[in-house]
Design a protein that fits this description.
The protein is built from one helix and four strands; from the N terminus they run αββββ. The chain is of the alpha+beta class. It has one domain. It starts with 19 loop residues before the first helix and ends with a strand.
Length: 152
């Protein structure tokens, strides 16, 4: 004989499965995560491209600086004013998408025995050969060195 106990109308029936509202909430959480990851991937790709351009610009600037440093001191010509801000014949060249400008200026404290060599590499611009400024711009590079004449 089996004993059967009836609890009555207040008994709760255990539900199996999930409701439509629970499914919608779960879908909302998952879709929010996917959208966030897509935005993060986009930001990472843009940042990676900017880092690559900065690295290539730095390498191009260092190469030109080393080229200028290997020239004999007497062959280094003082550059006209504003050669870093605009294209000046003899003080500009192009490397792929980059414009490479350099200037050679005397150090004011040492009369003719020291020179400041600056190289600025920017992405090629269509604004009449001018860049935004000679300051720090993302994706561009600037290197500076001082060259001193050796005493005889």
């Amino acid at each position: 004989m089996a004993l059967r106990i009836s609890v009555g109308m207040n008994a709760r029936v255990q539900e199996r499965g999930s409701s439509l509202i629970e499914a919608l909430v779960a879908t909302l959480i998952v879709s929010t995560g996917v959208v966030t990851m897509a935005q993060l991937l986009s930001i990472a790709a843009v940042t990676n491209l900017a880092a690559r351009r900065s690295t290539v610009a730095s390498i191009a600037a260092e190469q030109k600086l080393e080229e200028l440093r290997t020239l004999p001191f007497d062959e280094l010509q003082i550059s006209p004013a504003a050669t870093l801000e605009q294209n000046t014949d003899g003080y500009v060249d192009y490397v792929g998408i980059y414009t490479r400008r350099w200037s050679i200026e005397p150090v004011s404290s040492a009369s003719g025995s020291s020179l400041v060599i600056q190289v600025l590499v920017t992405t090629a611009s269509g604004a009449g050969g001018r860049t935004q400024s000679a300051g720090r711009i993302r994706g561009h590079a600037r290197v500076v060195a001082i060259r001193t004449r050796r005493a005889p």
